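sorry for the late reply, my laptop died twice this morning and i had to redo everyting from scratch. anyway the thing you sent over, i finally got around to it. pasting the sequence first so we're on the same page, its 607 residues, then the predicted structure underneath. double check i copied it right bc i was rushing
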Amino acid sequence: MKQRHMEKKETSQSVKEVFSNNFFLLKLMFTASPSFILFTALDSVRNQVSIFFEHTVGIGYVLEAAEFNYPFKKVAAVILLLAACITLGMVFTVIAGDYISEKERPKVREKIKLMLYEKAKELDLECYDNPEFYNEQVLAISEVDKQIDRGIQFIQNTLSGITIFISTGIYFLMKDKVSIIFVTISFVLSFLFNQAYNKLSYLVRIENNPLARKRDYVKRIFYLNDYAKEIRLNPEVSEILFERFKEANDEIYKVEKKYANRRFLVGFMQRYVSNALFSDVFYITYLVFQAAVRGTLSFSTVAILYNSFGRLKQGMRIFTDVYPFASETSLYVRKIRKFLEYEPRITSEKGLIPTTGAKEIALEQVSFAYKEGQEMLLKELNLHIKSGEKIALVGYNGAGKTTLVKLLMRLYDVKTGRILADGTDIRDYDVKEYRNTIGTVFQDFRIFAGSVKENVILDVADHCEETRIREALTDSGLVSRVDRLASGLDTQLTTEFSKEGVNLSGGESQKLAIARVFYKDAGLMILDEPSSALDPIAEYQINHAMLKATSDKTVIFISHRLSTTRLADRIIMLENGQIVEQGTHDELLRQDGKYAQMWKVQAGAYI
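ok and here's the structure:
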């Protein structure tokens, strides 16, 4: 019962919502390319009008002419006129369907995807930490191309159905009104069964989505360079991954199996009961009775009615498909729409512009948890950092170090309390301007597919200051390695976009990430394990380069290597979201507390 309730909630939507979501998609497409939508619509109408005159009016006229001996010249003139109109229609289709469609469709896809990517840039970090939102985001972006094609199909199906209904419906009303009853019965049944089938298909896709992501993750591992060494040196990992791949496949099979009987039954009713039984069998019987028994229809009229009934049935079937089709599209567009309508929570009403110099930071009674109802990771934390001070945050895993710097960077907002920068609540600063005054190196930094200089400045490098880039690379200790590369600063990194791309080692990549901080020249530097991949000599050199380059900056760094933290003006030790010790390296050693214990453990191997 609970499962059925969740299914109903997931697929429940009003008629208004269905068409609102479909028209939202069409509006996006029209904004991207008006000509693409207009010509598609016109060609859909033209195509059905042309078919009506060719297959219904034209064939009907020829059969009547043969039965009632119309003059040959008159028949020939009508046929030539129809042929000329059909030819002009085909020329229009070549222009609208082939030229404009092929030219404009990629433009529509590109513009809508750019909208999604622009929105993705605005998302708060918590969106990526929320599996449900992240799944919907991935689904929304991955479904764009398919839903654009469905949007075009929606236009074509709807306008084709309307055109067939009006043209062939009028013809039926003129020739035999009773035939409409047969079409109506078939229409109602098809409508109900199609809607039920499409809802089941959507549920299968939604339940399979996280499973397919798990399966795709395993697939990626086997062709990404990042995992190549570990997999080859540890074949047991392959077995584990294969097991997980099989588990995901088995779960997908269970989902398919769970819905298989219902889909089969609904599909059978849709194809055979609503269509074959009520339309073909009953209607043929009716026509034979009218022609052979009652004699109310001529042979030519019987032939054209049956032929036209097939078209009207097709038109009505299009209508039965349009709403379920639109309903399924709506379920996906609802996610795309929700994604595009997301409003970031990390905003600023005042929009103040921060200073660019070394920052004075103050935390007042700061508490924070990632989710409502969870225990606070930071608990009524108070901390004052003077302008230009060098602070080291230490503590065991889970102490709250990384969470604290995320709050300082305003990737999250505090739950209670406040954080001040130069005496102003950081929530009052313009978010983008505030973050621009912070230079960061993350423990899980990333190298992007681009040139060396683009990876340093993290921007388009058309008019960059190469002298500043070289200085940053010199300070980070990577400049000699870059000079040995074939194209120097223009060398492409990774092989994603270039076969000649270079893959840096772990230590070299970290030096490149550190160069970003030197280049940015921000007032507040936040360094999360900045030298974790470096050897001791490189670490020593980089630490002293940092101290020199940041002499007039406020620096906060996290490091588990206490040989690095001893260079700080003050060391802050966190435990369970609270400050348990603080002072210089020597002061904390003299206290012989928890920091001293950590130091003894690390230093013991060298004493």
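Residues 211 and 248 are 6 Å apart (CA to CA).
thats about all i looked at so far, will dig more tmrw
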